[in-house]
Amino acid sequence: MSSGANALDQPGSKPSRYLREHRLRLTIWIGAGEGLLTLLGLIPHLAVYILAAVAIGFWVVAGRKYESATARHLAWIFAALCAVTTLFRILAGCQTLRRLG
To answer: How far apart are the first and last CA of the chain?
Structure first.
């Protein structure tokens, strides 16, 4: 029987370790890129909001429960990426409103 600390520190596969170590960096860079594409009008803002709701819902319902660490990390990155893109869009909209008001 393994202790709790050792059970959490399982090495996992190479892709899983890479995703775990770099997931925040990946999320911020890809989210910023998508946010810029949204601001330029290449991605409709309504699609960003819908995709964020679906992604976060998916992560809450299914993504956290995958047995594969790689799948769990990819689900987290997808949900966080959509949240960052949405936040980027909302903050840009607030700046636009401030300039108009």
So the answer is: 64
Count of C-beta atoms within a 10 Å radius of residue 4: 7
Stated as kind and residue range, the H or E segment containing 62 is none
The whole-model pTM stands at 0.75
CB atoms within 10 A of CB 25: 9
- Which stretches of the chain are DSSP H helices? 4-8, 14-39, 45-61, 69-100
Distance between CA atoms of 24 and 41, rounded to whole angstroms?
A: 26
Q: Identify the CA nearest to 77 among candidates 30, 34, 27.
A: 27
57 φ/ψ sector (left φ>0, alpha ψ -120 to 50, else beta): alpha
Q: What is the pLDDT of residues 55-97, one digit of tens each?
A: 999 999 998 888 888 899 999 999 999 988 888 888 877 766 6
H-state helical runs in 11-44: 14-39
Tokens representing 49? Answer: 């909001």
